[in-house]
Amino acid sequence: TNADSIVGQKGRVTEAIHNATGAGRVLVGGDDWKVECEEDLPAGTVVRVVARESIVLQVEAVKK
Q1: How do residues 6-57 score in pLDDT, each as one tens digit?
Q2: Dist CA 35 CA 22 (whole Å)
Q3: What is the DSSP string of 12-57?
């Protein structure tokens, strides 16, 4: 399927990512996704999708 084509795309954090609470959402290609990340990130951070597991994306911050 094309579902894995999202890997490598960039998005923007719309709900701050907090690992302690499991919170975090990102807008990628016009779609809102639940996400997980190794670090907590504030809303507005640009991220890159590194993996997709069902309906949850794994992301990392894009370093400038």
Answers
A1: 999 999 999 999 999 999 999 999 999 999 999 999 999 999 999 999 999 9
A2: 9
A3: EEEEEEETTTTEEEEEETTEEEEEEESS-B-TT-EEEEEEEETTEE
